[in-house]
Amino acid sequence: MDNKEILSSTQDKNEQKNLLLDVEARTKVPENIKNWLEKIEGDPVQMRTVNDDSGQPLLQTSAPQDPRVVLPITRQKFVAGFKKTIDEAGKWLSTFILRLIKIKEGNVKFKEE
């Protein structure tokens, strides 16, 4: 009985997905609306920056920063943490730092001894 319910729910999802795809295929954006959107997007008045009273822009885009992270432990303590039992904090610290290394794609530096 449970399998029939699961099967019917997956069939319902597939039917809903197919119905949504059919509706998307039938709806087309009219040409006059496409032209209107292109005019609005290309209008320099719409793209102007907002300035304060002194003429300085209020918001400026900043350059992407990816600073090098200095880890709080040495490389030896990091490796030794994996040899500890799961009950010890050193194991969890090493696991967390490994996660940071993966997130930063290796752009990290260990603490000097």
Short summary:
The protein has 113 residues and is mostly helical. The chain has helices spanning 2-26, 31-42, 75-81, 89-103, and strands at residues 69-70, 108-109. 52% of the residues lie in helices and 4% in strands.
Description:
With 113 residues, the protein is mainly alpha-helical. The chain is built from four helices and two strands, in the order ααβααβ. A two-stranded parallel ribbon has the order 1-2.
| Lateral strand order in the biggest sheet | 1-2
Which structural class best describes the helix and strand composition?
mainly alpha
Number of strands: 2
Average residue pLDDT: 75
- Rg, Å, rounded: 28 Å
From the structure above, extract its key features.
single chain; 113 residues; mainly alpha; 2 domains; two-stranded parallel ribbon
Topology:
Layout: H1 2-26, H2 31-42, E1 69-70, H3 75-81, H4 89-103, E2 108-109
Parallel strand pairs: 1-2
